Amino acid sequence: MSPFGKCLHVVESVGEHVEELIEGDMVLPVFLPNCGECRDCKSEKSNACSVFPNKFSPDMPRDGTSRFKDMKGEILHHFLWVSSFTEYTVVDVNHTVKISPEIPADKACLLSCGVSTGVGATWKVAKVEEGSTVAIFGLGAVGLAVAEGARLRGALKIIGIDLNPEKFEIGKQFGLTDFVNPATCGEKQVSEVIKELTNGGADYCFECVGLASSMEDAFRSSREGWGKTVILGVEKHGSPLTVTPRELLKGRTVTGSFFGGLKPKSDIPLLAQKYLDKELSLDEFISHELSFQEINKAFELLKEGKSLRCIIWMDN
């Protein structure tokens, strides 16, 4: 479970002009649109969609109206075009991904947000190579998914950076080889420790916390000449990222990534197939399973950092 919400749905009915889905199809609602026809969707350079840009409207993307009302007849809004904390929802076809019915619902729902973001960032944005070194700042579900993606790409050293020492044992099953706790580095900067572990700096650094200070640490932990830093965390306080021109002149780069660079309609089914082929680990991300009536407990676990992904069962 994440603030975005995730769910696997069965198509109950389709509206006019919808051709790619039929009643009974299994679909994942996703917050990132993918029309498949615009210049952006056809390009391999990003996963943006220029027909349905992310303006974070509370309603349907085409006409700005809602399909929901409460018992009093008052309008309810669509949360990030998905509204998956409900037994029935209405979603634009460009926010849905058809998925194989062979994948279990509790595993499939992990692919509509966090896990896809982390895995995708290693494959599509960083393009991590076999034998490379990776440093991951923040070992929540997204950070651990980065580790999983780096493992699958054959990274030689995968370093996790987190204030919670328990995350190392959890992270080992996703491929972590080393762990750094900033609180125990003494007078050394985290970047110094990473450079020692990687003989000069990590080839790829991923920031999954959402703090400008952590982003700067990640950048300065990357190797001069070719080190690449990928920003996945959403900065919590609106603070700017400070990087000097001299640091950039030495060959390091920094880039942002939305949804791990994945194009939902084409890439999510590939991840589902990799799970079915026993290549991609998903089971280990599920730390809790609760009923819908316990949803407040799920949010408490999320805020306390005690869960990776919490599955909410609507019918339990």
| Structural class by SSE content | alpha/beta
Main sheet specs: 6 strands, parallel
**How many whole angstroms does the radius of gyration measure?**
20 Å
The spatial strand order of the largest sheet comes to 8-7-6-9-10-11
Count of DSSP strands: 13
Low-confidence regions: 1-5
Our count of helices gives 10
Estimate the global geometry from the Cα principal axes: globular
Detailed description of the structure:
There is one protein chain. The chain is an alpha/beta fold and 316 residues long. The chain has helices at residues 39-42, 105-108, 114-125, 141-152, 166-172, 190-198, 212-220, 245-249, 264-276, 295-303, and strands spanning 9-10, 26-29, 68-69, 75-76, 96-98, 133-137, 157-161, 178-180, 204-207, 228-231, 253-256, 286-291, 309-313. The strands form four sheets. A six-stranded parallel sheet has the order 8-7-6-9-10-11, with helices on both faces. The longest helix has 13 residues, at 264-276. It is globular. The model is unreliable at 1-5 (pLDDT under 50).
Task: Explain the layout of strands and helices.
Elements: E1 9-10, E2 26-29, H1 39-42, E3 68-69, E4 75-76, E5 96-98, H2 105-108, H3 114-125, E6 133-137, H4 141-152, E7 157-161, H5 166-172, E8 178-180, H6 190-198, E9 204-207, H7 212-220, E10 228-231, H8 245-249, E11 253-256, H9 264-276, E12 286-291, H10 295-303, E13 309-313
Parallel strand pairs: 6-7, 6-9, 7-8, 9-10, 10-11, 12-13
Antiparallel strand pairs: 1-2, 2-5, 3-4
